[in-house]
Amino acid sequence: xxxxxxxxxxxxxxxxxxxxxxxxxxxxxxxxxxxxxxxxxxxxxxxxxxxxxxxxxxxxxxxxxxxxxxxxxxxxxxxxxxxxxxxxxxxxxxxxxxxxxxxxxxxxxxxxxxxxxxxxxxxxxxxxxxxxxxxxxxxxxxxxxxxxxxxxxxxxxxxxxxxxxxxxxxxxxxxxxxxxxxxxxxxxxxxxxxxxxxxxxxxxxxxxxxxxxxxxxxxxxxxxxxxxxxxxxxxxxxxxxxxxxxxxxxxxxxxxxxxxxxxxxxxxxxxxxxxxxxxxxxxxxxxxxxxxxxxxxxxxxxxxxxxxxxxxxxxxxxxxxxxxxxxxx
Length: 329
Fold this sequence. Notes:
Elements: H1 5-10, E1 14-16, E2 23-25, E3 27-30, H2 41-53, E4 58-60, H3 71-82, E5 92-97, H4 112-126, E6 131-136, H5 145-158, E7 161-167, H6 171-184, E8 188-194, H7 201-204, H8 207-213, E9 217-221, H9 242-245, H10 257-272, H11 277-285, E10 293-296, H12 301-308, H13 318-328
Parallel strand pairs: 3-4, 3-10, 4-5, 5-6, 6-7, 7-8, 8-9, 9-10
Antiparallel strand pairs: 1-2
Helix pairs in contact: 2-12, 4-5, 5-6, 10-13
């Protein structure tokens, strides 16, 4: 079922995660979409196996990934039990808590009550004793930051997570919580943020540079802007596209004339580089070595293989950088 180990890992690049000893694959698989109760389990299994066969050792989840809440973790637990579980020591598995998960006052945000209970539930759904990285999924404006940081520190000391991370924290929020982690000696190693050619907020708020200077890894989600940074919408909106079949995260008005002009121009550069637009968009994120890993989503195994293919060319010359910046301006 699996390729020889040496072949599997030769297909991937691995980057050190911040100042830690952990290496993450340049491409990680996110289970945000297509792993819920409305998905096809055989296809989920094939995608995870294809990812692992191509050197993707990191699988990223959250407590509320679905639909329904918890379904992605349950399905991934089934996949681990069926096949991937025998490779547990070769896998990095992460999950998160911070968004709405269950009714009442204890199923949301960043209290110790919520974070500890949610991880226990996540471990049960996946059939695991520990996760490799446990994230706080978003900043909590009301819970003291000391409580959230202390909860994550205690979780590591309990053995239920090896490392901790944060997600959707801006530069100032990252500085604040990282100082608390530093004082406690917590193995805080990573921030997960939205980053793509169409969303450069981590450059604007200074997080990208700060993290690189201070030994904090960054893993990026939505690298293809929910599918806009592909050639899928150049000739219209396909009936089987995410816009038509889901519409929660990408709507028809996103495919407007101005955006299409950028997509077409970027696609021309990608062709000159011998890449698909999706491959170039993924490679662009890794262009300067400041990003640890790019989280991809997929609806079928062939997309994973295509995305990993971007590693064949992650270099951008000065002219390509200039042209891309002009298009994105």
